[in-house]
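Full entry
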Amino acid sequence: MAKIKFPRDLLILLLIPCLLTKVEIAEAQDPTSTPSLSPTLESSEPSFPPLSSDPEFQALSNQIKALEKDRNQLNIKINSLQSQLTISQQENLKFKENVENLEKQITILNNNEEKLKQEIQNNSQNLTGNLKKSKLLSASISGVSLLVSLISK
């Protein structure tokens, strides 16, 4: 069976004669109805069976219904995927913000580490200087002590 490219258009084209026939039948059964603008079938024209009883029409109608059902399911899946994409994009933005914040914190920690190293080095130099002064002072005290002990003898 050939694939249908425009199912809605094909259905409309197939249903127009059927609808016209139904309108004319309804008008024939109701004599009080106003005449319609649709052309009437003349009795000399051969009468066609209703399209709904045509197996090919039924097959096409079933294909159209199946295609519409598939389209609806695809639309639902598309909406779901769009929702998931939006959520993923939001999570990606949050992740990028977290990475940027972590990079800032790492920079701050590196700067603090450098400052601490410099402070440790300065304290070490100060302690070394203080130790030298302490040794000199201790030597001076020892020298003064020795002099005092020599003088007191």
Summary: Residues 98 and 107 are 14 Å apart (CA to CA). The radius of gyration is 50 Å. Residues 38-43 have pLDDT under 50 and may be disordered. The chain has two helices and no strands.
